[in-house]
Predict the structure.
Amino acid sequence: MKYYSTKNKNSFYSLRDAVIKGLPDDNGLFMPESIPVLPKTFFDNLKGMDIRTIAYEVANAWFVNDVPASELRSMVGDAYPFDAPLIYIDDETYIQELFHGPTLAFKDFGARFMSRLMGWMVKDEKEKLTILVATSGDTGSAVASGFFNVPGIEVIILYPSGKVSALQEKQLTTWGGNIRAIEVNGTFDDCQLMVKSAFLDPELKSKYQLTSANSINISRLVPQCFYYFRAAAQLKHLKTKFSFVVPSGNFGNLTAGLFAQRMGLPIHSFVAATNANAVVPEYLSSGKFGPKNSVATISNAMDVGNPSNFWRMTDLFHDSVEEMRKMISGYSYNDSQTRSMMKAVYESNHYIVDPHTAIGVCAWRDHQKKNVIAKSTTSNSHLGIILETAHPVKFLPSVKEVIGFEPEIPSQLLSVIDKEKVAEKMDTGFNNLKNYLM
Ligand SMILES: *Cc1c(COP(=O)(O)O)cnc(C)c1O
């Protein structure tokens, strides 16, 4: 399989280039020249299929000519000792829990596969691969956890001092081994600028083989297809009319769902749920894409004003907003609507959702109301599967404020609380990072 850039469909790259480079030189995004379709036998056998078997079949369809099957099998076996179960909310609403990985957010699915794939790609190289990543919290921990102890790869995480939660900081700074953390006396944007400058610096580039691990890497997107298939494997049968509701920021998760659908999974449609950063819902209603500066919300992992994967989505719909509208509906909510829904779900189901997932529930409820005529005929019932992108304890202050108590902290987090933080303190400015690396 070859990959093209969304900005130039005539130049093709290998899987290795796409994964190690992350972004094409023209600043577009890598897209597959074609999306593989799975055979009928796969769908005939899908019911009850476990996550690792699904991951292997899906990954093999994409990478069959690039990675040996035995390697793929051991990568997914190692990456996914956890599942993505469906939780019943009501007859037309399920939630899919994507937080059973080590860092309690769906980003573990992408980061754990990417780390093993990159590890395999560089294993015979003499030169180490150095991954530089700036984080506002969740991405850094998923990347650290994914790459921990992967031979031939070093990870350096930059995070803004005092701007990640105490638990998140522990998740970034207590690894040791091949993971290093730098605590930057500045903001997330300062960290990101330092990282971007490093990629452009000739001296650093000659000393290090540098790469990024951000969420637009194609090797983080493909593994995000896995749980869409795993959700379908838990349905009574594939004839159920089902849609996915995706709490979205940078729109990687939703793009992966579109890939899964093009691979043959009979998904009826998608509901894109955003917070006040509503660039994509606005595009769906007006036909105009207007990126903005992001505004801060309690669902901060979705505070994205210029979603990168929008360009992959328009590519899939041939730049036609009408085509995209047929498949994706958009809804957006403010913080007070988010809090009310967290409360409502807890009161009706004794189930705690984090702020991101609550926005998904809001969108599904409004979508159901809009489509009430279809809903009234029971033979035509329509199931919404809301992706639960993170565990509620990752957003403890707002969860506690709304439901009135602290949910139990899962063992993955408890294990880091007593570990000692190790971080290099640094002032902002690329030269400080460069001196440190040289
Ligand atoms: C990253 C993240 C999102 C947004 O996912 P995208 O793929 O960027 O749309 C939503 N919720 C949580 C908890 C996240 O960490």
Notes: The chain has a mean pLDDT of 93. The pocket of pyridoxal-5'-phosphate is lined by residues 105, 107, 138, 215, 247-253, 301-302, 356, 389-390 (CB under 6 Å). The first helix runs from residue 15 to 21. Residues 77-103+221-410 form a domain with the Rossmann fold fold (CATH 3.40.50.1100).
